[in-house]
Amino acid sequence: xxxxxxxxxxxxxxxxxxxxxxxxxxxxxxxxxxxxxxxxxxxxxxxxxxxxxxxxxxxxxxxxxxxxxxxxxxxxxxxxxxxxxxxxxxxxxxxxxxxxxxxxxxxxxxxxxxxxxxxxxxxxxxxxxxxxxxxxxxxxxxxxxxxxxxxxxxxxxxxxxxxxxxxxxxxxxxxxxxxxxxxxxxxxxxxxxxxxxxxxxxxxxxxxxxxxxxxxxxxxxxxxxxxxxxxxxxxxxxxxxxx
Length: 243
Prior knowledge:
By secondary structure, this protein is of the alpha/beta class. Helix content is 32%, strand content 20%. The chain has a single domain (4-131, 146-195), classed as Rossmann fold, CATH 3.40.50.1360. A 7-stranded parallel sheet has the order 1-10-9-6-2-3-5, covered by helices on one side. Strands 4-8-7 form a 3-stranded antiparallel sheet. The longest helix is centred in the N-terminal third of the chain and has 20 residues, at 11-30. The chain starts with a strand and ends in a 10-residue tail after the last strand. The model has no long low-confidence stretch (mean pLDDT 96).
């Protein structure tokens, strides 16, 4: 397991550092290719990161936005990851609508997952046997150590060939649509943003316990992704010690 840990004073500072790294990676990608592909997550801390992103210089016309996961709700619903991103980033940066690749959850979870997987294939056009490769993937961490919508006990945590799937989260009584581990691991860069005291315990288990991704799903990414930066604050990193 190899990753860089960045600890800031609080959630805003961690989110701003994550935003700055995102811009650096976007600019790096755009020096050698026409466009960059970014997959974002939802939640309170990512909203802070989006707020920081809008203050930074980015050629948004050359950036394509995708989502790591989505709840089975329509756009406009308060639970929608797309809606949160639209409010805090898309509408403020005037990102071309053609560059926005949302998960169409209003179709129903199964149909939305199939359509999203097809869109990933169409956009990235990976070589036979290869997976779509994002330039940057943003991930968060739940208090149960889930990441994306891969929760403890989910069999798809072991899937390395699929692109996207509908998953039913029993404890939330809710369907979700999520990118699968193979796609997450194929990303050139992964940025994990986790702040607040409720993240201290899961971060400790993910980073220090034996490898058991069915119990701590985020381990599947931190242990195997190629380039990972973890942006934390003093509260979330309280149990981690030095290093």
